């Protein structure tokens, strides 16, 4: 099996991939103070929970937005597997043309999202990733990564609100019964959850318009306006029930993208 690790600012997701599908998945809190030994131990413990051992892992790759943990995971996996993992970076060939002036600045998770969206859903394609930040990643009609947008994530916005309004902190993060909140709790849910959904709807619409304006030919313009929109990230299931803007909710998109980039480098 192949081990894909997506190190985000808040959570780290690990997935065992077999036959191009995620067979096992684990999440842990991202802690910048973790040592390589601690990460090695956590990996062993996760495997033991499923009656697996390290021998099932044939290769591994990392996409990380936390540089210090990139180093720690490299060491941990080197010790565990006897070989260093592949690391997804914007500065190396990731089987995706990055049509941006500074490709080395693009987050590894965003590259993985774009690669898997293109290969699994076609191009053009739009990915909305709900994590610490809400990232929108765009693949144009030529299969190039064009960039996108970055906004504060739902939980980041909620934390800021709750930090300055203590009485609101017990509000559950879920879709309210209606946009007009008839209680304080429903009003907060409307502003947070429906607000993030509306933000995604508005940005996706503008992105499709830009892609269509840049496309050459009637057919290419129509494809741009019909580009599939894929939601991913920890909160995508909640947001996905609050809007019809998504053609798919794909929780494993990033992990499979990491695997696909690694596979490309195997020749």
Description of the structure:
The chain has 267 residues and is of the alpha/beta class. The chain is 42% helix and 22% strand. The protein has 8 helices and 10 strands. The protein has helices spanning 36-49, 67-81, 108-121, 154-164, 184-214, 218-225, 236-240, 253-265, and strands spanning 2-7, 11-18, 21-29, 59-64, 86-87, 125-130, 133-139, 145-152, 229-232, 248-249. The strands form 2 sheets. A 5-stranded mixed β-sheet has the order 3-2-1-4-5, sandwiched between helices. Helix 1 (36-49) crosses helix 2. The longest helix has 31 residues, at 184-214. The mean pLDDT is 94.
Element string (H = helix, E = strand): EEEHEHEHEEEHHHEHEH
Sheet with the most strands, sense and barrel status: 5 strands, mixed
C-alpha termini separation = 18 Å
Widest beta sheet: strand line-up: 3-2-1-4-5
Question: Could you report the average pLDDT, rounded to the nearest whole number?
Answer: 94
- Point out poorly predicted stretches: none
- Helix- and strand-based class? alpha/beta
Radius of gyration over C-alpha positions, nearest whole angstrom:
19 Å
Put simply, the count of helices is 8
Helical content (DSSP H or I, runs of 4+): 40-55%
Number of strands: 10
Q: What would the principal axes of the Cα set say about the shape? A: globular
Strand content: 15-25%
């Amino acid at each position: 099996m192949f081990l894909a690790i997506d190190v985000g600012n808040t959570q780290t997701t690990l997935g065992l991939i077999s036959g191009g599908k995620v067979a096992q998945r684990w999440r842990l809190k991202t802690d910048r103070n973790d040592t390589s030994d601690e990460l090695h131990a956590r990996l062993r413990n996760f495997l033991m929970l499923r009656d697996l051992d390290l021998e099932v892992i044939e290769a591994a790759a990392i996409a990380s937005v936390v540089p210090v943990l990139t180093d720690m995971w490299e060491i941990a996996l080197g010790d565990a597997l006897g070989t260093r993992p592949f690391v997804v970076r914007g500065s190396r060939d990731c089987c995706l043309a990055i049509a941006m002036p500074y490709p080395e600045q693009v987050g590894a998770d965003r590259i993985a999202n774009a690669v898997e969206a293109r290969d699994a859903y076609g191009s053009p394609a739009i990915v909305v990733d709900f994590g610490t930040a809400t990232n929108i990643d765009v693949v144009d009609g030529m299969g190039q990564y064009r960039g996108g947008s970055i906004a504060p994530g739902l939980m980041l916005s909620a934390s800021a609100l709750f930090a300055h309004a203590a009485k609101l902190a017990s509000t559950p993060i879920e879709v309210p019964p209606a946009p007009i909140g008839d209680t304080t709790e429903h009003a907060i849910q409307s502003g947070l959850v429906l607000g993030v959904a509306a933000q995604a709807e508005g940005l996706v619409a503008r992105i499709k318009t830009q892609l269509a304006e840049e496309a050459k030919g009637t057919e290419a313009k129509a494809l741009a306006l019909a580009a599939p929109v894929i939601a991913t990230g920890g909160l995508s299931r909640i947001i996905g029930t609050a809007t019809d803007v998504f053609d798919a909710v794909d929780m494993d998109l990033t992990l499979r993208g990491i695997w696909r980039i690694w596979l490309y480098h195997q020749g």
